[in-house]
Design brief:
Helix content is 10%, strand content 34%.
Length: 189
């Protein structure tokens, strides 16, 4: 444990590279979120990068082309990532990510057209796909005629704010953390 007045330790070279983002394809960052064992950053270009634990598929960096999927190709087991990696499915779709939120074992991202994508452990329905299935490649969360502005993740639940100011929540709600009615009061920016 460090004490006041002691010298700070120098980070190992590999950690300094990650901290300075020398290994990323872009230099400017726009938004960052940290979960229990993983993190994600939205770059100024609209690309999303993530790193950390991937045991519950929360990184979203895996990708299958339509051609590979039709051939029946399967993904290898998820691997932890020690450096940021691009979330290829969102990049391939052409969507620019504007915001990201990391939970304990899942991730949500908002794109410039107001769409939300989720991936990771699906327990308690926290991914918003009307089931408890785990999702390894980012998948669109369906909202009827709503454009989403912001996302947030708790350990076992998720929340979004629409552009109209509505708060929508889903997942585990054992402590009253889910709104059971739509909040329409406009939220401060």
């Amino acid at each position: 444990m460090a004490r006041v007045g002691t010298k700070a330790r120098r980070l190992p070279a590999a950690r300094r590279r990650m901290a300075s983002h020398e290994n990323t394809p872009h230099s400017k960052k726009g938004f960052v979120s940290a979960g229990l064992g993983h993190s994600a950053v939205v770059l100024e270009s609209g690309d999303l990068m993530s790193w950390g634990l991937s045991r519950q598929c929360q990184l979203g960096v895996d990708y299958l082309t339509e051609k590979d999927a039709k051939k029946g190709k399967e993904l290898p087991p998820p691997e932890d990532r020690h450096t940021p990696d691009v979330v290829k499915a969102l990049k391939a779709s052409g969507d620019k990510v504007t915001s990201v939120a990391c939970g304990s074992s899942h991730t949500l991202a908002v794109t410039s057209d107001g769409s939300v994508f989720s991936w990771g452990a699906g327990a308690f329905g926290k991914l918003g796909h009307d089931d408890d299935s785990d999702v390894r490649i980012p998948r669109l969360v369906e909202f009827k005629r709503k454009r989403i502005a912001r996302v947030s993740c708790g350990p076992e639940h998720s929340a979004v704010v629409s552009e109209a100011g509505e708060v929508l929540t889903w997942g585990a709600g054992s402590y009253g953390n889910l709104v059971r009615r739509t909040l329409t009061r406009t939220l401060a920016s």
